[in-house]
Amino acid sequence: MTQYLPPNLLQLFAAREPIPYLPPVDKLPHEKKTRGYLGVGNFLNSFEDPKDTPPCTRVETRAERLERRRREKAEQVAYKLEREIAIWDPQALANATEDPFKTLFVSRINYDTSESKLRREFEIYGPIKNIIMISDKNSKPRGYAFIEYEHERDMHSAYKHADGKKIDGKRVLVDVERARTVKGWLPRRLGGGLGGTRRGGADVNIKHSDSRSLDHRGPDREHRGLQIADRRRYDERRRSRSRDRREVRERSRERHRSRSRERRKRRGSRDDYDGLDKKERKESKKKKRSKSRDRSEKKRDRRDRDKDRDINYQ
C-alpha cells in the first residue's frame, strides 16, 4: 500500500541510519585479572582504640517521648492541685450563704432558668432567704445554684422531695451543701465531688450520677450536730401537718355531703314542682276538652234547630 503514497508521505516512513559502533571503555569482567579478596588484618593497626570510642547517644522513641510528656504533665497537675488544696478554705468564700446547714445545692439546672423561676419552684417547701446562681467569668450560668432557706426543716423537706423535679424540661439533682459541713470535702476541680460522669473513658464513666446511690449520710456534724430536740420538733411538725391535712379532708367531705343533701332536697322540690305542673296541665287539658265538648254540643243543637225551621217553612 505504501507504493501508492506520495513522496512527501513516504519520507515519513523512511528508515533511520544505524547506530554507530563505539569500542568499550574498559575490559569485560571475565577478561580482567584480579588479585582476589584479601583480609582486613593488615589494617587493624589503623583502627582507633575501643577505649577511646565515645559512648553512643541513645535516641528517644516516639512512644517514650509521649509517655515522658504525659508524666511531666501529670506531675505539674498534681503539684498545682496540691498547692490549691493547701490554700482551699471553704469558710472564706465570697459569695457563700450565711448558714450552710440551711443551704440546698441544686445542680443540672437548665441554662435558661431564671432565679425567679427557681424561687417559685422551691418556695413551696418553705420561705427562701437567698438564692445564689453560679456563673462563669463571662456571666454565663454554670448549671447549679445554692438555695438558703430560713428554716432548716424546710431545707430537709426540699432535699427529700425535690430530687428529680423537672424544671424547664430538665430534671434537677438536689443535695446538701458539703463544702462547709463535711470535714475534708473537696470540690470537683480539686479532685473531690460525688459525680462520676468525668472520671475517664467510656468504660469508667457513668451516664447518670445520683447522689442518693452513693454511700453517704449527709454532712458531718461534729461541731454542730442535728440535735434530738430539733428532730423531735421536726417530727411533731410533720405529725401536726398530717393531722391538719386529715381535718381539712374531713371538713371537705362533710361539706361535700351537706352539699349533696342540699342538692337532693332541691331535686325533690323540683320534682314536686314538676308534679304540680303536670297536675295543673292535666286539669287544664280536661277543662279544654270539656269546653270543646260544650261547644260541639251547642253547634249540634243549632243545626238541629235550623233543620226544624226549614222543615216547618216547607
TrEMBL record:
<keyword id="KW-0507">mRNA processing</keyword>
<dbReference type="InterPro" id="IPR000504">
    <property type="entry name" value="RRM_dom"/>
</dbReference>
<protein>
    <recommendedName>
        <fullName>U1 small nuclear ribonucleoprotein 70 kDa</fullName>
    </recommendedName>
</protein>
<dbReference type="GO" id="GO:0071004">
    <property type="term" value="C:U2-type prespliceosome"/>
</dbReference>
<feature type="compositionally biased region" description="Basic and acidic residues">
    <location>
        <begin position="205"/>
        <end position="253"/>
    </location>
</feature>
<feature type="compositionally biased region" description="Basic residues">
    <location>
        <begin position="254"/>
        <end position="268"/>
    </location>
</feature>
<dbReference type="InterPro" id="IPR051183">
    <property type="entry name" value="U1_U11-U12_snRNP_70-35kDa"/>
</dbReference>
<keyword id="KW-0687">Ribonucleoprotein</keyword>
<dbReference type="InterPro" id="IPR012677">
    <property type="entry name" value="Nucleotide-bd_a/b_plait_sf"/>
</dbReference>
<feature type="domain" description="RRM">
    <location>
        <begin position="102"/>
        <end position="179"/>
    </location>
</feature>
<dbReference type="GO" id="GO:0005685">
    <property type="term" value="C:U1 snRNP"/>
</dbReference>
<dbReference type="InterPro" id="IPR035979">
    <property type="entry name" value="RBD_domain_sf"/>
</dbReference>
<dbReference type="GO" id="GO:0030619">
    <property type="term" value="F:U1 snRNA binding"/>
</dbReference>
<dbReference type="GO" id="GO:0071011">
    <property type="term" value="C:precatalytic spliceosome"/>
</dbReference>
<dbReference type="InterPro" id="IPR022023">
    <property type="entry name" value="U1snRNP70_N"/>
</dbReference>
<feature type="compositionally biased region" description="Basic and acidic residues">
    <location>
        <begin position="269"/>
        <end position="283"/>
    </location>
</feature>
<feature type="compositionally biased region" description="Gly residues">
    <location>
        <begin position="190"/>
        <end position="199"/>
    </location>
</feature>
<dbReference type="GO" id="GO:0016607">
    <property type="term" value="C:nuclear speck"/>
</dbReference>
<feature type="region of interest" description="Disordered">
    <location>
        <begin position="189"/>
        <end position="314"/>
    </location>
</feature>
<dbReference type="GO" id="GO:0000398">
    <property type="term" value="P:mRNA splicing, via spliceosome"/>
</dbReference>
<dbReference type="InterPro" id="IPR034143">
    <property type="entry name" value="snRNP70_RRM"/>
</dbReference>
<dbReference type="GO" id="GO:0003729">
    <property type="term" value="F:mRNA binding"/>
</dbReference>
<feature type="compositionally biased region" description="Basic and acidic residues">
    <location>
        <begin position="293"/>
        <end position="314"/>
    </location>
</feature>
<keyword id="KW-0694">RNA-binding</keyword>
<dbReference type="Pfam" id="PF00076">
    <property type="entry name" value="RRM_1"/>
</dbReference>
<keyword id="KW-0539">Nucleus</keyword>
<dbReference type="Pfam" id="PF12220">
    <property type="entry name" value="U1snRNP70_N"/>
</dbReference>
